[in-house]
Design brief:
The chain is mostly helical and 108 residues long. 80% of the residues lie in helices and 0% in strands. It contains five helices and no strands. α2 crosses α3.
Length: 108
C-alpha cells in the first residue's frame, strides 16, 4: 500500500520537474500566447474607451481618471509612468522574453 504523503510528494515533485523542464518550444509558444493576450487586453481597453467616450462621456471622465488608468498602468504600455516601480504585464513579458529566448539560444 502506498503512503498518501509519499504519493503527494511524488506528484508535487513530478509537477515541479515538468514545469522546470518544459521544452523550449513550449516556453516559446506560451510566451507568444501571453503576448497575444496582452494585445487583446489592450484592444479591449481601447474599445471600452471608445464606447464610453461616445455614449457615456460623463462616466468616461470618471472611468478614465480611475479604473481605465489602473488597467493601462497594470498593462504597462499606454504611456502611463509607473511611479511605484511595481511590476507590470509589459515588464513581466520583457523578463520572460529574455528568459525564453536566452534558453532557446542555449538549446541550439
Amino acid at each position: 500500500m502506498v503512503d498518501k504523503r509519499t504519493s503527494v510528494r511524488y506528484n508535487v515533485y513530478t509537477l515541479t520537474v515538468r514545469a522546470t523542464y518544459m521544452s523550449t518550444y513550449e516556453k516559446v509558444e506560451a510566451f507568444n500566447r501571453l503576448t497575444e493576450l496582452q494585445e487583446e487586453m489592450n484592444e479591449s481597453i481601447r474599445e471600452t474607451e471608445q464606447i464610453m467616450r461616445k455614449q457615456f462621456p460623463y462616466e468616461y471622465r470618471n472611468a478614465e481618471a480611475y479604473w481605465i488608468a489602473h488597467l493601462k498602468t497594470a498593462l504597462g504600455n499606454h504611456g502611463f509612468t509607473n511611479s511605484t516601480r511595481s511590476p507590470t504585464f509589459l515588464s513581466c513579458l520583457n523578463k520572460l522574453e529574455d528568459n525564453v529566448y536566452d534558453n532557446e539560444l542555449d538549446d541550439s
